Amino acid sequence: MTNLYAWNTARANPVAYPNVRPARLFHPTRARRFFGLFDKPLPQQENAPIVMFEECLHRLGGWGRAKRAPSIPVVLLGLLTMTDYHHRRNYNIPGHAHELTFSCYRGYKFLQEERICQWLAESIDEARANWHFHLWAYVFMPEHVHLIVHPERAEYDIADIKKAIKSPVGSKAIRCMLKESPYWIPRITRKRGKKTERLFWQSGGGFDRNIVESKTLIKMVDYIHMNPVRKGFVEKPQEWKWSSAAWYSKVGESPVGLDPVPSGWLWI
User: Fold this and answer.
1) CA within 20 to 30 Å of 144's CA: 92, 99, 110, 230, which one?
2) Residue 87, pLDDT score
3) Is 174 exposed, middle or buried (CB count within 10 Å of its CB: 0-12, 13-18, 19+)?
4) pTM of the model
5) How many CA atoms, within 13 angstroms, populate the side-chain half-sphere of residue 113?
6) Which domain holds residue 44?
7) In what side-by-side order are the strands of the sheet with 97-103?
8) Is the C-alpha dihedral spanning 2, 77, 26, 151 positive or negative?
9) Are residues 50 and 165 in the same domain?
10) Co-location of 208 and 135 in the same domain
11) Average pLDDT of the chain?
């Protein structure tokens, strides 16, 4: 859809875009550079979709070569390809933090079991050591997980980090189901052609949001900590065991190892 918008826009507006060939817009990264959406981060507010639309329209309308206001497809292209937003593709950019969200297969509440949460905590600790990233915040919900991580090295692959965290937990849980709860096996079994697989985590890798601003980081930490409160599980974020909220509030310890956020990123 994004590439189609880019191609149609360039083809339909040869006067507005005289020096741009449609082929140059096919890659999302090129499209973002072309429309100048990397000049500064787009605003993150409660009414974010409206604010981002207006900001995007303003920036696109002010592009030096444009002879007329950008069409709606152009604006949609900008919204679809901008950074600091949920996406499935991974952008491994040095210095960025990542808010990762992944879910149990079909939304099953596997993480209600204390043992599985402990396996996940151990897997995160091991992955931190092996893949060199900092864990800044987290929450384990019954059917999904939020993590905020910050890779230490300039060269990294966030997909490898996610795999290192998720794979050991899925393998242990499925082996446990085979022995103790075999009635679960048909529910987590999926056939794709001749291939049969058992899934603990929802396929697709989940969502990965790049974070580049301290105000966005603060909002994301607050957002994930409030998950158990919004669901009605607890009255205060720090009451939820599998969360970094108590550690941030300095009223308790975290069952998962955490790293302090550098002063340049947060209010501390």
Assistant:
1) 92
2) 46
3) middle
4) 0.67
5) 13
6) 2-81
7) 133-140, 144-151, 97-103, 207-211
8) negative
9) no
10) yes
11) 77
The DSSP H or E segment spanning 140 is: strand 133-140
For the stretch 1-34, pLDDT in tens is: 444 444 344 444 444 444 444 444 334 444 444 3
Under-70 pLDDT residues of the chain:
1-89, 266-268
- Determine the straight-line distance between the first and last CA of the chain, rounded to whole angstroms: 42
Query: Are residue 127 and residue 162 in the same domain, yes or no?
Result: yes
Q: Which amino acid is at 109?
A: K
The DSSP code sequence of 167-180 is HHHHHHHHHHHHHH
Which pair of tokens denotes residue 180?
């103790």
Q: What are the two backbone dihedrals, phi and then psi, of residue 146, each rounded to the nearest 5 degrees?
A: -120, 135
The total domain count for the chain is 2
Q: What's phi and psi for 204, nearest 5 deg?
A: 110, -10
Contact by Cβ (8 Å): 207, 100: yes
- What residues have CB less than 8 Å from 86, skipping those under 6 apart? 101, 207, 208, 209
Residues 8/73, Cβ–Cβ less than 8 Å: yes
Does 113 lie in the same domain as 233?
yes
